[in-house]
Amino acid sequence: MTGYILKRLLSAVPVLIGITIIVFLIMAMIPGDPATAILGSYATPGNVEKLNRDLGLDKPLVQQYVIWLGNMLTGDFGTSFALNRPVLDEVLERFNATLVLAGTAFVLCSFLGVIAGVISAANQYGAADKGITFVVLLGISIPSFFLGMMMILFFAVNLRWFPVSGMWPIYGDRTLGVLLSHLAMPATALAVVATGVIARLSRSAMLEVLRQDFIRTARAKGVHERGVIWRHALKAALVAIIPVLGIQAGFVLSGAVYIEIVFQWPGVGRMLVDAILKRDILLVQGGVVFVAACYVVFNIVVDVAQSLLDPRIKT
Amino acid sequence: MIAFIALLARNRLALVGGIVLVLVVLLALLTPLLPLADPDVTNTSNRFQPLFSEGALMGTDHLGRDLLSRLMWGTRLSLAVGFAAAIVAATIGAAVGIIAGYYGGRTDNIIMRGVDMLMAFPYILLALAIVAALGPGLLNALIAVAAVNVPFFARNIRGITVGIANKEFVDAARLAGLSDKQIILSEVLPNVVPVIVIAMSTTIGWMILETAGLSFLGLGSQPPQADLGSMLGEARSALITNPHTSIVPGMMILIIVMSINLLGDGVRDALDPRLKSGALSRPMAATRVDRAHQPPEAEGKGLLEVKALETQFHVKDRIYRAVGGVDLHVDKGECLGIIGESGSGKSVTALSIMGLVASPPGMITNGAAYFDGEDLIGMPYGRLRDMRGRTVSYIFQDPLATLHPLYRVGDQLIEAIQAHRRIDKVAGRDKAIDLLKAVRIPNAEKRISDYPHEMSGGMRQRVGIAMALANDPDIIIADEPTTALDVTVQAQVLTILDDLRRSRGLAIVFITHDFGVVAQLCDRVAVMYAGRVVEEGTTTTILDAPRHPYTARLMACVPELGGGKRRLEAIPGLPPVVDKLPEGCAFADRCDRVQEGCREGNITLDRVGGHGVRCLYPVGQDREFAE
Asked: Any residues with CB less than 8 A from the CB of A245 and at least 6 apart, and which?
């Protein structure tokens, strides 16, 4: 097991390097002088020259990349010009908020999606199946930012069940209850699309598994249909579902950008959009690399979970 | 193409989606011709007019611009950008995929590594990075969304191309001296285009959503130009005071994306051949029973008595009569063999007894199976489940497929016990070890925590037998349990079964296509052909003097050890397809003794003593006459 985890961690190294190369190349596409772009309209010629020297932008591309990578490895992601603060500090702080939001949404969509898919498959062509299929279709078709706005209108403004936006109230205690009431709507809105996708996949994975011989064996043993569905079929179907959960985590993280804007959530997505509009290039660069790296690590966790579930995966 | 559209139209939801989409696209195309207000003319004295107000059907926005007009122009722009992004992504992705797939080797390796790297990003990070580098704007948003989707197309198309590049017609083109470029354009591309179209139909809704999303964030279309996303983004600040300015563009995005998704699902279903045959149906907990007649009464023969059993498979408009009226019985401690070629209905007969025939498409349409006087067919599910494994249990053919791959064999055994009585973990484990010992698995205490894939085929089948024994059943139905095993293991498994029968007084129904196995194990044997029993009697009489020509021919197929030079005779022809059974004897077409009258009416199973045969001119009869 340890061997498998180590092997998987090692295999992530080239991916992480690849990610930094891609981000570096995209940033190299910035038209004109990057230092001017970074400093924006406030740039004086002196400042531009100094920044170019500081960032090593006067050197050849390969050397620039090595310097940049080396700096990041020592924890130096540069300084945000708009915020006048180290990029890493800002990213870490914002990423916490995103983790709370996206993490909750991810747990929500994984459970709801799988359960909906299983119920749908177990009642194929029945009323529950048709109902779930329709809701799922609606869920994957509605833009999450529009859904979020409608939820604000209905649940926050009309019913006054939840606060309109934000992560914490401006005044008052920061308790778990307060956080949950702020979290309920954005996490739900964020989870909807992924729930739909996971429900669809779980349904077809279950239908595939339910036709297998070992399901007939379970029935022949006299196992109750509930056990056949939830123990035998679901466990085998999870082998196909779990890798998709890993992919969906990326979509949840992506959707978080919209939801953070709609609900004024102080996360890394909103930070990135603000940074782009302010042309705070180093903050964008650092944020993208950091979140992408976290996602790669998360996918290793998914792979390990998969190998725990399926003993046939040899280390 | 017409057939495809007809197939698509049969899917009502896809049809609705298609119609809505066509309407929206038509409206978007006609927008410049419609008598609409100028979408960009501001009139701040006239802002936030409600729906259905004078001169503005959908009201006005925060700058007093006509919402209907802006909606139409915005829809036009969103559709155009979404389609453009899809086409760009598909073109570049297909080009990359074809090059990687066609050239293979290092080219492929390097390209696909790059594609994998791109797919390692949550897509929006990549899109945001691209927009950050190029600057906000609709064209840049389009580039970003297209770029993010290129890897998806590249990977799909590469897979297809690899398959095509190894086909004979590509080799032929190469031998004909065509250049790589010519081959790609004339041989590969035409075969890849349909895949590209399908991939586009499933992603285009997504791309419209994504470009709208970037515009919503303020990174796409810039004012005064507006697509649906930026309309929604601008309306957000007035969400609470004037919700209709948000709802109008939001609903439009929803309608467009939903209609595309409906249509896309329809396209996929129409093209997926597996769904066409209905093969993806889930088998229900028990086989459907829909008996046309009152089932025949029990005669009190044996412990299990099957009467006039008919099981059919309904696939589309066809009805396959897999079992067409079978009578069988087996007594306590007795072993009944059921023998026949594949497709003769022997397995379906056996599975019908406890309602284990996959349904849909299976259905029991007639007959009864009496266990101790109680009819198992059509029994309420709760009672049937309780009898499964406890009174009648099964051993199946391929133990790798029939054991759950992700549970330890011990847990599967314990579960079988727990299905019928309360037993704690320790006692369950002890009982499971006893069961494994009973089927002579060496080192049972250790083997109990093996997974099925860690065992040999013979060991797995022993686990299968142990599981069938878990609740001391009265009857074991063994469905070709030794077919997947090699000969020495087969002999061991048969010995185990025979011993168990003698020591526990089990009744065994043994299904096989192997006369050698029948001779070794069975007291009586029933020969099945095309869903019916054609001959039945004690093993010795049937082996010594088969009367049905089919039985005789079937036995002639078996090589005899030390039997000297004897011609092995395969039976010419194939068994009839059970959706078009001929009248009279189903074997008539393959029989060398066929005479007039064989193809008429219903031929009954005539009994002389304990020996029944369904034949007008049975083997051996002429000899008797001659004597």
From this structure: A106, A110, A198, A302
